[in-house]
Amino acid sequence: MKKGFIAVLAIALTLALTACGNKNNNGNGGAAAPSATVPSSPGKTATGKLADIKSAGKIILGTSAEYAPYEFHKNVGGKDQIVGFDIEIAKEIAKDFGVELEIKDMSFDNLLNELKIGRIDFVLAGMTPDSERAKVVDFSKNYYEAVQAVFVRSEDKDKFKTLADLENKAIGVQTGSTQEKIAKGIKDAKVKSLGKTTELVLELKSRKVDALIVELPVAQGYVANNPDLALTDITPKYESGGSAVAVAKGEAGLLAEIQKTLDRLTADKTIDKWVSEMTELAEK
Ligand code: ARG
C-alpha cells in the first residue's frame, strides 16, 4: 500500500520535471534544446554558426540601409542611426538569442558574398528569396510580402499604363536586385543599374532614366516626399516580392532559431505595426 503510493509519487514527480524541461526548451531564445525536442534539426542546434554566435555574445547583421522603410539612415536625436522595420526584427532576433546586435551596412550586391565567407551572420535587407539566390544561401520563410512598383516623373505618368509602356525605355534599378532581373526581361529596355536607390532617384529627376522599379512601400515613400514623382499602376510580376532572412548555406540550427522569432512577430502582427511606424519615421 505504502510502496504503491511512493511509486505513484515518483512517477508524478518525473512527469512534472519533464514538463518543466519541455517548457524551457520551447521558450523564446532559450538555451539550445536537447535534440529529442527538436526533431527538425537533430543534434545540430548548438553547433556551427549558432554556437559561435552564442559564445561570442554577438550576432552580426548585414544590410544595405538605403531602402526605407525596410532600412535607412536617419538622424535621431542628433545622431546618424540605421533604422527600419528590418532593423527592429534583427534587434528582436538578437534579444531572443540573448546576444548583442552588430550592424554592417554595405552595398546590396555585396551581401550574399559577405554571408558566404562568414563576415556577417544573417541578412535582412528587404531581400527576396529567389531560386538563384537559394542556390548560394538559405532563406527563412517570408516575413513580409510586397508587390513590385514602377514610378516615374509626374509629368510622364500618363505615358506609363502597362508593362508594355516600359519597352524601349531607360529603366533604373539597383545593382544585383531582383528588379534588375525584371528590367532585363523587358523588351529593348535600356537598363541602368546603380548601387543606391537615392542615386537612381536623381537619375530619374535629371531625365537620365524614365522609370524606376522598386518594392511598393519604397516607391510610396519617394512619391510622398517628391511632388515631381508619381507612382504608376504597373506592377511587374516576379517569382516573389516578399522578404526573407538569409543565412549561410547549411546553417539549419541558426535558421531554425531565427524562424522562431519571425513566427512570433508575424503571428502577433508586430511586423505590420513596425512597417507603419517606420514608414512614418521615414517621411518625417
Ligand atoms: N527585394 C529586392 C531584392 O531582393 C530589392 C531589395 C533592396 N534592398 C535594399 N536594402 N536595398 O533584390
Number of domains: 2
Q: Summarize the amount of helix as a percent range.
A: 25-40%
Chain oligomer state: single chain
Strand content: 15-25%
Compute the gyration radius: what is it?
23 Å
> How many DSSP E strands?
13
The largest β sheet comes out as: 5 strands, mixed
What's the CATH first level of the largest domain? Answer: Alpha Beta
- Low-confidence parts lasting 5 or more residues at pLDDT below 50? 6-45
Explain this structure to me?
By secondary structure, the protein is α/β, with parallel strands linked by helices. The protein folds into two domains: 145 residues, 3-Layer(aba) Sandwich (D-Maltodextrin-Binding Protein, domain 2), CATH 3.40.190; 84 residues, 3-Layer(aba) Sandwich (D-Maltodextrin-Binding Protein, domain 2). It is 38% helix and 20% strand. It has a five-stranded mixed β-sheet with strand order 10-9-11-8-12, with helices on both faces. The chain has a three-stranded parallel β-sheet with strand order 5-1-6. The protein has a three-stranded antiparallel β-sheet with strand order 2-3-4. Helix 3 crosses helix 8. The protein is globular, with a radius of gyration of 23 Å. Bound molecules: arginine. The site of arginine has 14 residues, from strand 2.
List descriptors.
284 residues, alpha/beta, D-Maltodextrin-Binding Protein, domain 2, 2 domains, 5-stranded mixed sheet, 3-stranded parallel sheet, 9 helices, globular, binds arginine
